[in-house]
TrEMBL record:
This is Uncharacterized protein. It comes from the Bacteria.
Length: 75
């Protein structure tokens, strides 16, 4: 994984966590996991942001915010 990609993922995590202080520990772990790589993030985006599948960890306003922030992230 290249440095710019890692920086983009890290910035996305920081933005999301900064704006979502009320996450449960398992939700925080989940976000850390899906932002580990561009591939994981893209898979999440396809299933939950585009196809609107139900996500057991992130839902409601948190999911909407995360999807919006993923869309704003440049790779």
């Amino acid at each position: 994984m290249d440095i710019p990609e890692q920086q983009s993922l890290s910035a996305l995590r920081e933005r999301f966590f900064y704006n979502n202080m009320s996450l449960q520990p398992h939700q925080t772990d989940y976000v850390l996991d899906i932002t580990e790589s561009r591939e994981k993030l893209e898979s999440f985006r396809q299933f939950y942001c585009i196809k609107k599948d139900k996500n057991p960890f992130i839902y409601g306003q948190n999911l909407i915010r995360l999807c919006d922030q993923i869309e704003d992230t440049k790779f």
